[in-house]
């Protein structure tokens, strides 16, 4: 993370509003950047001052002005249909030198009401005095119809607004779920939690070594399979060691690589032994982390890092090339 990424997050970090993964990345950047650390200290000091500032109650005069501007409780509410052109109310006045008034512009809600009106009381409104949706039909003459100015009309209009808001919320939820990528499954959540937990705890490596002949034998007796281990330092991904972790209800091997200043955890286990990767894209991102998975040498590999997604693609290419060269067989690993 650089300054351009960290600066917009400093406010939320100072108020402890960031998710744990983002907070960790921001904190790591702050510790290595004097300018951002000073900015973060200033924000925390300002937040502390604001929290201890005295509370001032609004004056009574402000409340009185607000209440005076509100309509009275018994003031009649005029529906949009009440404002009709003069010519429509009394056609005989046309041509007598008096121009008809224009009806006010009607909003989206009025147009929606027009589409729902049913003359002759075809669609009764429960609880309305006349039983009709519109005041123009025989079912709406009772004054309590959907579009009338009575209390029933006001209630119905408010009900319709609430219904439209609810329908919009449902539509938005459906749209978000349709666009939700397949990478939001429980397995990737568990993968991210495992990676973050290891970084936060400071025990991200159980066996520290750049020698694959030290890391690979360390897993013997600790797992029921032997994970392939390769040092990819020549490709820019030096091996730093390995650890055991628990993922998808089983123990798995984790190979820890370094890319520049980024840690890359590579989880490796026999194909179809844990997790379901068939329905997930090969490369995905979650909460600021890049994630990639592939199959090779009878194993499923999952890589996760806060490095750019291209880094994981390059690591995958280098690892597959190394495995295809048969390094473990030729070196007697």
Describe the structure.
The chain is α+β, with helices and mostly antiparallel strands. It folds into three domains: 50 residues, no CATH class; 83 residues, no CATH class; 149 residues, 2-Layer Sandwich (Phosphorylase Kinase, domain 1), CATH 3.30.200.100. It is built from twelve helices and seven strands. It has a seven-stranded antiparallel β-sheet with strand order 1-2-3-4-7-6-5, sandwiched between helices. About 14% of the residues have low confidence.
Strand order across the largest sheet: 1-2-3-4-7-6-5
CATH topology of the largest domain: Phosphorylase Kinase, domain 1
Q: How far do the termini sit from each other? A: 37 Å
One letter per element, helices H and strands E, the order comes to: HHHHHHHHHEHEEEEEEHH
Helix tally?
A: 12
- Largest sheet properties: 7 strands, antiparallel
Number of strands: 7
Tally of individual domains = 3
Bin the strand percentage: 5-15%
Mean pLDDT: 73
Structural class call reads alpha+beta
Helix content: 40-55%
Low-confidence segments, ≥5 residues, pLDDT <50? 79-84, 91-95, 118-148, 178-183
